[in-house]
């Protein structure tokens, strides 16, 4: 039997600042044909309502499936549940440390542990500044295991016009890691724009 390529993506949202990146990722994938299996940590829920105008229910409605943080018996805690991989966006330093040290004490950490053991793609959108030695060591440890460490660093070469442009660009780059290419922003083609070009684009 020929098995179709899996179209499931696990999405963990933890309590670091930048929950809008998780929301935007779910918005981009909503109706795309990619199943999203989301786990929202309790601190992510608190940060979400503090940083954005979205409610927890609105964000949950964007996902195909939702799981309680304490449900260690959920489908995504098993390696037999085939997925494209997992993204944690944003990823707190606590979650980074738990994953780096195999502490599967909640469903986000357990699902990430499963992704590691099954050698699937794990992307961590880590959010902290400045970084101290423990943060860096945990990132290096996971990077050596094939984990993609992708801080939500804004780009300016594409001349973003507003904060939404920056959020969309970072989120688009996150999805690129899973070969999900949604061209919600103009991709840089190597052409260097002048200030006149940028001004003309603003007028348009």
What's the helix and strand layout?
Blueprint: E1 8-13, H1 19-29, E2 35-40, H2 42-51, H3 56-62, E3 65-67, E4 85-91, H4 93-100, H5 107-117, E5 121-126, H6 133-143, E6 148-149, H7 163-176, H8 195-203
Parallel strand pairs: 1-2, 1-4, 2-3, 4-5, 5-6
Helix pairs in contact: 1-7, 4-6
Average pLDDT rating: 92
Counting helices, strands and paired strands, the structural category is alpha/beta
CATH fold node name? Rossmann fold
Give the count of structural domains: 1
Oligomeric status: single chain
Please give the share of residues in helix. Answer: 25-40%
The strand line-up of the biggest sheet is 3-2-1-4-5-6
Distance between the termini: 52 Å
Tell me about this structure.
Helices cover 40% and strands 15% of the residues. By secondary structure, the chain is of the alpha/beta class. The chain has one domain (8-203): Rossmann fold (3-Layer(aba) Sandwich). Strands 3-2-1-4-5-6 form a six-stranded parallel β-sheet, sandwiched between helices. Helix 1 crosses helix 7 and helix 4 (93-100) packs across helix 6 (133-143). The longest helix has 14 residues, at 163-176. The protein is globular.
Features:
six-stranded parallel sheet, 6 strands, 40% helix, Rossmann fold, 8 helices, 15% strand, single chain
In short:
Helices cover 40% and strands 15% of the residues. The chain has 204 residues and is of the alpha/beta class.
